[in-house]
Amino acid sequence: MDYSFRDGLDFAKELDRLDTLHYLRDRFYLNEDEIYMDGNSLGLCSKDAEEALLKAFNVWRKEAIKIWGAENGRYFSFSKIIAEKLKPLINADTEEIIVMGSITTNIHQAAATFYQPTKERYKIVVDELNFPTDIYALKSIIELKGYKPEDVLTKIKSRDGRTISEEDIISRMNEDVALILLPSVLYRSAQLLDMELITSEAHKRGIIIGWDLAHSIGAVPHDFKKIDPDFAVWCSYKYLNAGPGATAGMYINKKNFHKSAGLKGWFGNKDESQFLMSHDFDQDKDANGWLLGTHNIFSMAPLDGVLNLFNEVGIENVRKKSLHITAYLMFLINTKLSKYGYSIGNPREDHRRGGHVCLEHDEAYRISLALRDNGVIPDYREPNVIRLAPAALYVSYEEVYRLVDILERIIVDRAYENYSLKRVTVL
Question: Are residues 261 and 343 in the same domain?
Answer without folding.
Answer: no
